Structure formats: structure tokens, C-alpha cells
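Slide 14.
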Amino acid sequence: MSRQAQGAVLLILGATVLSISAFSTTYVNYVQPGFRPLLVAAGAVLAALGLLSVAAGVLDRPGARQRGPRVAWLLTVPVFAVVLVAPPALGAFAARHSDGPPVLVRTEGHLPLTGGEVTELTLGEFIGRAYARSGPSLAGRKVRLVGFAVPAEDGRSWYLTRMQIRCCAADALALEVAVQGAASPAENAWVAVTGTWVPWRGGVPDDYVVPAVAATAVTAVERPAEPYE
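Slide 15: predicted structure.
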């Protein structure tokens, strides 16, 4: 690979990073929203270095015709992956192959839910409240949860799911709530489930058991701009 070709690859790679971070929200399929400034800066640096290398080749400056290692062509792989394939946000397949249940942080309790007739919660907060040490604050309260549908292996039940990431999609864990009383939507369909928490028989378990919600309504929704919690 010539220096000029390397410059072109860097320029394309930088432009691709900028296109998914500075000019769109595609980057949230892969990393936390807080990484946007870093991605924009990295894309700008790569594009600038690539442009300088291409310009040096055009002007035929000393060293511009030197050839680099062939392995440098591997830089084109992420470009093709993002531009041609455009991997979507993690869904049902990733949820089924998640490393395990979320890490529960058992608190002394949560404040009582306030607001109107229906309270909107994230799946993470719903699960945390269900496992609160001083007793769940969900009893008798109608909540609204948003996630995508993952049919269970038995074909009769399903889970409302949201992926949780700390850094990027590589460390994602599945947050799941079993939905009772409603037919399963299509796999990966984003829905809002309105219903009430189903207490466990015998009290809150010591080991992790997926909490459940008795659904009174299931409605289709658009995928959120930020698909992960």
C-alpha cells in the first residue's frame, strides 16, 4: 500500500467516523452517547491526517512514494462494516446470548412512585425497585415500560428487553421483564407495556429471578433514539 493509498484510507475512515457521530446518531448503536465528542475528535484527526498524506502524494513530496505494509489495508474493514453493512443496535439475538443477569444493587428502598395514574420507568429501575430490601415500591402501581420483544424458547411467553451498556456494545447485558397476559409481538418489535408488577410467591427471592409485569396494554412504538440503558 502506497503512502497516498494509506492517506486515502485514513481520509475515508475519518469521514466515516464523522458521518456517524457528528452528522447522525448512528454511533449510539455501538457506544454510550457520552463518547460523541471523542468520536468527533478522532474522526477529525483521521480525516486531517489522511488529507495531508494524500496532498503530499499529489505534490510528490519526499517519502510520499514509500510503501507501507499490506496489513494497512485492514483499516478498510471498519469502513466497509459501517458503510455497507451498518450493524443495527443489539437485539433479541444478543439478549439470548447475554453473559448473565444484571448485577443487582440491593438498596434500603426507593422513594414511593409519584405522578399520574401511570408511571414510566426504565427496565433497570423497575428491576431495582422489585428487589428493594425494604419491600418493593411497585405494589399496586401501574407502570409503563419500553423495550423490544424477545419470545421465550417455549414459544408461549415473552420478555420485554432492553440492553444495558457501560461503555460500548461489547459489554452489553440484557435487562428482561417477563410479560404476562398479552400475546408476544414479533421478535425485536419495540413496544410499550403498561401494567402492574407481579409479586413473587414467598417474597423477594435471594437469587435472581426475572421479574414479571401483568400487562393491561401493549402498544407498538418507534425505536428510541438511544436504544440502550
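Speaker note: The mean pLDDT is 84.
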